[in-house]
Amino acid sequence: MNSLMLNTDGVQIPQLGFGVWQVPADGAEQAVSTALEAGYRHIDTAAAYGNEEGVGRAVRASGLPREKVFVTTKLWNGDHGRAAEAFDESLSRLGLDYIDLFLIHWPVPQQDKYVQAWKAMEKIYRDGRVKAIGTSNFTVQSLTRLMEEGEIAPSINQIELHPYLQQREMRAFHEANGILTEAWSPLGQGKGLLSDPALAVLSDKYGKTPAQIVLRWHLQLGNVVIPKSVTPSRIAENIDVFGFILDAEDMAAIGALNRGERIGPDPDTFNMT
Fold it and tell me: Which of 177, 185, 134, 178 is nearest to 159 (CA)?
């Protein structure tokens, strides 16, 4: 399993993780247990998903040393003014001694509290209760403000990213500032991407599924990627992407699929709390 180095005290994050967005609370423990058995060592959850308890139970029951499983959770929008308390609540629900990565889930610029939240997270980090801190769905503008007004640069920014929304400007900004890019909805949420004829051609060429082709593309771009599934065969399929390499021509063919189309909300306007 490939790992990438964060900009935080030598912390490494497994490049391929397992996401649990929209996994029901009563199914999270089984899904995460299946993922850990399949070889995943990076689990991505959030307070807003309502399944931190199940994730924590699976991690604790896995028999794996705690330091071998990288756990991410996120601060919800309505908690920007109480980030320390919300962190404690997530930690309690997970039943863990620490969290590996804590992210601000959305910037919610309308309420203008994300810098306040970030400063509280910096203290949590300095207290040693989280290994790294970062952001999710932040834009160039909001990331720039955090870096100007905060003392610690975000280690990672998790954004919607798939072949139909390739986020080249954001990826370039991240790279220029030592921030890793993490892709959510990396397979386009089943909204037609995996039926694209260009991916069918590559699927035939490499003897891999379209999903495996797309995940391989992410890995070769240098993205951290967190596919989600509750189907055991799909969970195993999604991690079986390290035995082949897409050539430059095929990477370019996927690069040509960009439409600049979002499936999820626009970070500049999303303000659900």
Answer: 185
Rounded to an integer, what distance in angstroms lies between the CA atom of residue 121 and that of residue 135?
Answer: 11
Beta bridge partners of 225: 16, 183
- Cβ count within 10 A of residue 141: 12
Residues forming a β-bridge with 42: 70
Distance of CA 97 to the CA centre of its chain: 21
Q: Using 50, 70 and 90 to split pLDDT, how confident is the model at 9?
A: confident
Closest CA to 37 of 18, 52, 20: 18
Q: Which two tokens stand for residue 137?
A: 């769905």
* pLDDT at res. 190: 82
114 is catalytic: no
C-alpha triplet 13, 19, 21: angle, nearest 5°: 140
For residue 104, give the nearest of 132, 72, 77, 143 by alpha carbon: 77
pTM exceeds 0.70: yes
Phi/psi at 258 (nearest 5 deg)?
Answer: -55, 130
Q: How far apart are CA 214 and CA 194, in angstroms?
A: 8
Q: Which of 40, 49, 125, 164 is catalytic?
A: 49
What stretches of 135-247 show up as alpha helix (H) in DSSP? 140-149, 168-176, 197-206, 210-221, 232-239
160 close to 171: Cβ distance less than 8 angstroms? no
Rounded distance between C-alpha atoms, residue 239 and residue 10, angstroms: 25
pLDDT score at 10: 87
Instruction: For residues 112-141, give the mean pLDDT.
Output: 98
Q: Pick the closest to residue 102 from 130, 123, 81 (CA basis).
A: 130
Q: What sign does the CA torsion over 55, 57, 63, 67 have?
A: positive
